[in-house]
């Protein structure tokens, strides 16, 4: 294998006047399968002046880039209609989409608060928040809103936000620079990129030495951009560039979040376990617990003082996140799990502080504190959050396996005019550009969608199409990225790269399905919306239901434990109601089930478009039973008819 020194020279050169392109979006009806998409693309891509076309399998939208010098949007629309598909809508590209990762959502109330905050932004057309996926997908008018406004709105609502991708990220690349040490070097690199054909926008991060380039994929690509940067070198000053990817960042963030909850839980246990031992264990083991009854001042005992000292860090340091979450929730005029936890723990803690003050100032007062209740409650909730995040971190593993179908490396070949291979070089898959010629050896995975130009082989497409039998491929046949070349050597020409490949669209389909809400989730959301206020009312009624009868003597006095009065007994029951009532499981059950089902289905070759399809799936078994019963009755009726025709006697 020879090294190709001209590896990074652009393969597709276009004159600057051809770089001016426009984008139009059509709403195409009757898009039902991949064959429909291929029909639309085939009828459009051969038109003179059309640069690219991408049809979404989700909503039938076609985004077409064309040169107005050679063709108009009306001509394109007529071509689609001539191919047998209806064009329901014609509009210029005015809607942008961005995905944002949201941190700090605990229940359905949180996700609804984020959705409401996003919908209030001027220019936002639609916002969908996935609780289990911890993401938001926002459709907005780029003339009125942008990603920064969206992130600010989420942060103002009390949640962390981080941009995952925007509409322009499809044709955006991040390059890590070396040799750029001064402002003059930055200006040289920026100028070399800005004047390159096909480059729309350039941004430079001085801190991390990363340049972000937005480009036209039909004109240039990552490999060409690296070449432009290297050719800007002069004399002894050499500039080098390499791809900078953020792959795996989400997984690292999830691991960090799991470790953070684990550390908080262990730190909480460091204080809450001794409080529990001092309050519940040692007093039951005389004489080992007698030292806890030592009176420091008046009726303030050493055990009560130690419980107060140890529970305070748990309440205000470890439990700070519940105070912050409650503040933001109440500021939004809503209530979530943090409000319940804050109410329950504060009621237990501050009542215990009241008991401590009374014991410190009185010679005869005796009361029961609840310091162990508040500290242990926070510890158990942190344990639940740790286990919850541990489980949620595993739900996206199946989706990660889909992206691993694409190989990391590919063989780029250089051919002469007679279509003879001059050289071949191993490159990163992300450096592949449109119209590149790639060599696929037997047993290798195909990195992108393309067309066979030379060679013959059988390709295993079962992981994409479900076809168990390998498909024969010869010149002119299409190949799909992620499939496996069985026995022959193929030369393919790249036609779809990056997010335009079939595998990328499958991943987008699964992610969209995980964000979509199932119809049954609407009921859960409605219940969760009023759940916390109802719990607070129920806790107050519980306290009243035990306190008032206790004061008037409606139940026996011996029901109340020693060193406790009716108020304290009623308070225990009220706190218990606040503690056990948590809407997290109710709000997380449906989105987590949809997320796991869609991810596992995708790994098995089954694409699920959302919770609606899953909710209707149970009817398939009912339909199967009805059809089977109908066929059985038909067969039985036919058998009876046969016996009657033969004159046989039928036994009942």
Description of the structure:
- The chain is of the alpha+beta class and 652 residues long.
- The chain has five domains: 68 residues, 2-Layer Sandwich (Alpha-Beta Plaits); 70 residues, Alpha-Beta Plaits (2-Layer Sandwich); 73 residues, Alpha-Beta Plaits; 211 residues, no CATH class; 104 residues, Calcium-transporting ATPase, cytoplasmic transduction domain A, CATH 2.70.150.10.
- 47% of the residues lie in helices and 19% in strands.
- The chain contains 18 helices and 23 strands.
- Strands 16-15-17-23-18-21 form a six-stranded antiparallel β-sheet, with no helix packed on it.
- A hairpin with a 2-residue loop joins strand 13 and strand 14.
Cα(first) to Cα(last) distance is 82 Å
Helix tally? 18
Residue share in helices? Answer: 40-55%
Approximate shape: elongated
Q: Any low-confidence stretches, pLDDT <50, length ≥5? A: 1-19, 648-652
- Taking all residues together, what is the mean pLDDT? 78
**Tally of extended strands?**
23
Main pleated sheet = 6 strands, antiparallel
**Gyration radius, to the nearest Å?**
33 Å
Count of individual domains = 5
Strand-residue proportion? 15-25%
Order of strands, widest sheet: 16-15-17-23-18-21
Structural class of the secondary structure composition? alpha+beta
Key features?
single chain; 652 residues; alpha+beta; Alpha-Beta Plaits; 5 domains; 6-stranded antiparallel beta sheet; 4-stranded antiparallel beta sheet; 18 helices; elongated; disordered C terminus; transmembrane helix; P-type Cu(+) transporter
């Amino acid at each position: 294998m020879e090294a190709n020194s001209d590896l990074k020279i652009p393969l597709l050169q276009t004159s600057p006047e051809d770089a001016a392109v426009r984008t139009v979006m059509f709403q195409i009806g009757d898009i039902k399968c991949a064959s429909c998409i291929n029909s639309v693309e085939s009828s459009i891509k051969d038109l003179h002046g059309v640069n690219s076309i991408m049809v979404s399998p989700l909503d039938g939208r076609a985004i077409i880039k064309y040169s107005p010098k050679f063709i108009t949007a009306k001509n394109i629309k007529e071509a689609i209609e001539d191919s047998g598909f209806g064009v329901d809508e014609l509009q210029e590209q005015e809607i942008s989409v961005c995905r944002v990762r949201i941190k700090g959502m605990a229940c359905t109330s949180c996700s609804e608060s984020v959705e409401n905050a996003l919908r209030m932004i001027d220019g936002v057309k639609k916002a969908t928040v996935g609780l289990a996926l911890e993401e938001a997908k926002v459709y907005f008018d780029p003339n009125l809103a942008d990603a920064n406004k969206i992130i600010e709105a989420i942060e103002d609502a009390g949640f962390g936000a981080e941009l995952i991708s925007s509409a322009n990220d499809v044709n955006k690349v991040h390059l890590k620079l070396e040799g750029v040490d001064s402002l003059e070097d930055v200006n040289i690199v920026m100028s070399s990129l800005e004047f390159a054909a096909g480059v729309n926008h350039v941004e430079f991060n001085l801190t991390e030495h990363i340049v972000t380039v937005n480009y036209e994929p039909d004109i240039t690509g990552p490999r060409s951009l690296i070449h432009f940067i290297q050719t800007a070198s002069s004399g002894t000053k050499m500039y080098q560039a390499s791809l900078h990817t953020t792959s795996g960042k989400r997984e690292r963030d999830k691991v960090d979040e799991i470790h953070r909850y684990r550390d908080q839980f262990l730190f909480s246990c460091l204080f809450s376990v001794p409080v529990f031992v001092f309050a519940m264990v040692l007093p039951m083991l005389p004489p080992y617990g007698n030292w806890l009854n030592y009176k420091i001042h008046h009726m303030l005992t050493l055990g009560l003082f130690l419980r107060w000292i140890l529970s305070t860090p748990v309440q205000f340091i470890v439990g700070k996140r519940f105070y912050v979450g409650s503040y933001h929730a109440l500021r939004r005029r809503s209530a979530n799990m943090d409000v319940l936890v804050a109410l329950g723990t504060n009621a237990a803690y501050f009542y215990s502080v009241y008991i401590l003050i009374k014991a410190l100032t009185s010679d005869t007062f005796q009361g029961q504190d609840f310091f162990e209740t508040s500290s242990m409650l926070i510890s158990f909730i942190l344990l639940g959050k740790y286990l919850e995040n541990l489980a949620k971190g595993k739900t996206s593993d199946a989706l990660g396996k889909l992206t691993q179908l694409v190989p990391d490396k590919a063989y780029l070949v250089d051919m002469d005019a007679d279509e003879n291979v001059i050289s071949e070089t191993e490159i990163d898959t992300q450096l592949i550009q449109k119209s590149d010629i790639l060599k696929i050896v037997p047993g290798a995975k195909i990195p992108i969608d393309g067309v066979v130009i030379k060679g013959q082989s059988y390709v295993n497409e079962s992981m994409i199409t479900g076809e168990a039998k390998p498909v024969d491929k010869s010149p002119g046949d299409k190949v799909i990225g992620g499939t496996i070349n069985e026995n022959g050597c193929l030369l393919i020409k790249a036609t779809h790269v990056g997010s335009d490949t079939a595998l990328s669209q499958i991943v987008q389909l699964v992610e969209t399905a995980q964000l979509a809400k199932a119809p049954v989730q609407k009921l859960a959301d409605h219940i969760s919306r009023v759940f916390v206020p109802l719990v607070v009312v129920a806790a107050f009624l519980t306290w009243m239901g035990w306190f008032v009868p206790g004061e008037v003597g409606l139940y026996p006095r011996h029901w109340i434990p020693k060193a406790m009065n009716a108020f304290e007994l009623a308070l225990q029951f009220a706190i218990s109601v606040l503690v056990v009532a948590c809407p997290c499981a109710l709000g997380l059950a449906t989105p987590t089930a949809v997320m796991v089902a869609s991810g596992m289905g995708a790994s098995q070759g089954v694409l699920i478009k959302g919770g609606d399809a899953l909710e209707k799936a149970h009817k398939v078994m009912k339909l199967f039973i009805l059809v089977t019963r109908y066929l059985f009755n038909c067969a039985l009726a036919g058998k009876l008819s046969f016996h009657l025709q033969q004159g046989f006697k039928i036994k009942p």
